[in-house]
Write a structure and sequence with these properties.
By secondary structure, the protein is mostly beta strands. It has no helices and eleven strands.
């Protein structure tokens, strides 16, 4: 069964950086077919889009992270990454990897990012 496994979360101070990874395992479909994205959910808030990267590597970012976060994907590693720089307390959330294929959305288990001031 296909799985998307996140890693790389943690505790960081304001202005610091983290790099999240999401690796695709056991997929019957080639990783290159998935549109990938990162979402986040802070306590008592709805899950929100952070960044997406399409099968053709077109990127889209939430206004709140533009210029600070960079999404990328490595087809050889079956992975998508989120480089997060200049982190702020409002970036604190659980970050989820999302994969979409033919209208079907798959989610990772989430990884906690905490930015301390």
């Amino acid at each position: 069964q296909v799985q998307f496994v996140e890693s790389g979360g943690g505790l960081v101070q304001v202005g610091g950086s983290l790099r999240l990874s999401c690796r695709c395992t056991a997929s019957r479909e080639p990783f290159k077919l998935y549109n990938m994205g990162w979402y986040r959910q802070a306590p008592d808030k709805q899950r929100e889009l952070v960044a997406t990267i399409s099968r053709s590597a077109d990127r889209n970012y939430a206004d709140s992270v533009k210029g600070r976060f960079t999404i990328s994907r490595d087809y050889a590693e079956n992975a998508v990454f989120l480089q997060m720089d200049s982190l702020q307390p409002e970036d604190t959330a659980v970050y989820y990897c999302n994969a979409e294929l033919l209208g079907v959305n798959l989610w990772g288990q989430g990884t906690q990012v905490t930015v301390s001031s």
